[in-house]
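[Target chain]
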Amino acid sequence: MVDNSLADSNLMIFKVELPEGEKVKDKKDLFKSTGMQVKTVKNENKAIIATTKTQFQLLKGRIDNYAQSGSGKTYFDYIADFKPYIGSEKNSSALQRTTCAEKVPLTLDVQLMLLPNLDADIYDNVIKKY
């Protein structure tokens, strides 16, 4: 199953990791100034972020510029890594065993866990798909 439930929502979801010792809660202004919205904090230096696809392209341009010329250093000195967020990372081990078994059941009872703090209309659209 491909995790693409937000494909038509105009959102980009990804993970951000800050350097060891830095805290997501202390960088709220940094995230806001670059158009990133913290949706959930995984631990003190890792978070799941949402931004619009347009804002993501601007952010990507800033990152590319920073990588090539060092311009924008104040924004990106505090970010150690950007990574894709794959919702299937949240699959339980029991679900993973079941779906990888030689004989997969015809039906499965699963619980959908959606990313917190999204707009209600986004949740409604995702629920309609399933």
Notes: The first helix runs from residue 28 to 33. The chain has a mean pLDDT of 79.
